[in-house]
Write the structure tokens for this entry.
Amino acid sequence: MTLHRGRGFAAINYPIGMNLGGDPSQALVHSNPDGKFTVTLSSIDLGQGMKSVTRQIAAETLGIPVEDVYVDTADSDTGPHCMGSFASRGTHRVGNAVIQAAQEARAVMLDAAAEELEVDPADLVTDGQGNIHVRGAPSRSITTMAACQAAQFRQGKTVSGRGIFLIPLSEVDPDTGEMTPVSCFAHAAMIVEVEVDDETGEVSVTDMKSAYEVGRALNPKLVEQQLRGGAWMGMSHAAWETTEPYYPDRAHGPVDFSGYLMPGPGDLAPHHISILERPAPDGPFGGKGPGEMCANPVLPAVVNAIYDAVGVRIDDLPVTPEKVLRGLRAQGGAKPRRRL
Amino acid sequence: MSDGMIEFRKEFFADERDDTLNEIGKPTRRQDILGHVTGRSPFYDDHLFQGLLHMRCARSPHHAARIRRIDTSEAERTPGVVRVLIGRDVPLNLNTLLSLLDFGIDDEPVLATDRVRYRGEPVAAVVADSEATARAAAAKVRVEWEVLPHVLDVEEAIRPGAPVVLDIYPGNRFIYHGKYDHQKLRYGDVEAALRAADHVVEGRYQMSPIEQAPIETCGAIAAPETNDRFVCYSSTQALFFSLATSSKLLRLPSSRLHFIGGTVGGGFGGKVDSIHEPLAILGAMLTGRPCKYMWDREEEMQVGAPRGAERWYISDGVMRDGRIVARKFVGYFDSGAYTRLSSYAIIKAVGHLPGPYTIPNVSADVSCVYTNRTPATAMRGFGITGVDFAIEAHMDKVAEVVGMNPIDFRILNAYRDGDMKAHRRSAKNCALIECCQVVAEKAGVQLSNAARTASSRQGGGGDRGRLPAHTALDQSGRVEGFDTGSYARKAGQRPATQHQVPAPVAARASPATQAASVQSRPRVEETRVAPSASQTTQQPAPPQQHPAPPSAPPRSGPIRFSSLSGFRRR
């Protein structure tokens, strides 16, 4: 038995959002009497952090601390329309809707502050700590709380805002496929290292080194969890998972996690991630969506690494020991390439 | 593991970013994390009403069969069973999510009535006072089957004489724009460029069906609410898709539905077009009690729609110096027995080709193929992951043929700002080259001088930014007799023998009618007029044998999300 090491490379880009039928999301923002804000959405937090990233976007736009914002989502009696959380659209579409709603609410808050301070609202800035002051004159200030109270109890203004972000329907030419599929793309590249056992056909992923370009990492921890988890899923797609092991035959379909295999903690490879941020011109603070694309480079990088290690091309996923052994047998044993 | 294992390369594109923000860019703790880690966040399955009923489905053991008779009497007699639902209990028993966007037509019954088209297709839903009772009674639903021939492979399914999966798609393929049995991409002249290339490299790639595998299986709990409404707690990824689907299938105005969700235990695409909500609400409507419909793990894995299989053929024409001059794709998406979202995934895939590279001649023929397997649906990277696997596995082979380092080869062909893409829009905001460079540096891979100094912001545009002088067009896969907005066989041509349920006729006819009626109107009006005008004709007739549902007032048609009626040609 010999363990063969190989490295494989892949690079991808990824379209953010769907465009079919038009792709809108909406947001509402309003202030409580004490200047704490609620963002109301119908978007779904699947664990990716929808509530958290929209909360940061609202706080940044309103110019208040993140603690002063709460995101309430997905009650159809109160939340405005959202297409949903899929197609890497949440951060981009909903984020933009939240910015628009928060800008409208912020304008009322600043108007109210201006009236209290007897200045021009255009001269006011927020410090992000809960204060509004005259630009260049921090002592002429009012708290966001006092401004919101004044608006609602003295001036008769609702400190609220509405937002929508719509990517219009892209028509598709039947003859050429001409279309405007999406407005921005995320990017990734990756090198994967594998070890292939030429006796058992088993493949283990031993190292991953990646670079992901995400527009802007709105919350670096949320981005990291997406990329780490997504790369794990890519690895799992490459060499573990299928609902139909003998596709197109439907036999031997797994029915639980003892038959449907995924990499466990012992299978995890060290993954060194580099994050690049080229802001999308129409993204919320430049943000794209890291959610889906992070898995994609891993699948081809793994099969390319197996070829590098033993000279066997696996073009049918998932990679299984059986496919590796059949490939080795067909070519009379391992033929390491070592191109990378 | 994360410390020392992640870095932010702020030096790249720094001049395009304002890094002096207050909240953006901070690793702020999640708003909902305390609830999650203490087990207190309410997921849909935490709403266990008093007197909750449980729903389980009886399913087809066959890939394809005609239903002669469904006998629910034994199941109904089981102690604890409150109700057994079959197709005729569903007010509008025909659905497809994309018809809400005017893309495609309803093709899938909620509960099969006359035919099943995949193993696991539901034919009856038992509602009982415990899950165990519902499960036991579902096993007692007796169905008299007439087994039919089936087809499981995409390329077998499109051969002449293959068993027809859905009668409305007689060629087992979705019809695009009423014109072709596949979606085309044509950019330049691929065949001429392949002939002129120094090497032609061909490959065939197969993406496997994959389960989304959320920890929380798909489901919904519905209950009668005060004021003649229904509340529905759901695991949906798309609250308004689920609300609109329920409103449509149950013929209830959206104002009588109260949907609550938003905290979901993983989705990955499998909860976008779920059908649990209308069934759970129907259970609540027909029993007057709270009702839960939740998949177990086996259902999630075998009858829950997976990421569909894809098969791709790629031919590349490449010059000795490594420039790719032609790339041709033939792709088959295995949609399974119904359309669900596969027809759209193909549009997304075609808009993505040829991957992040600037290639002067590109073509693709991509088909949405029906087979007798579990219908496919969205999953992370939908429409992209499978073809990216094919493209990047292929790139490795082509690099070897021209004797180049695989990273140098990617950078040489990478798209740059200002380049023209195959879908005829300019590339901008590119960053592929920089990602390649960072990975090469980290892995100690020696790049060529040209690759090391390349930039996404330089060297693009110019000749690379122009549309091809000539694009070779063709009429392969042309279908006749369809209106621009129709996706299936045109009205009146379908043999009447296959369905007892007349619904598909009406459903099929209406998009064509719609498209015909809007074509004479100016574009701007179309967006407003068409959806409401279609509402009265859009309602398919109910099954003959069952009492007519209350007729909806004209102002309460199904919710539609389309900005245009029909997916028209430009």
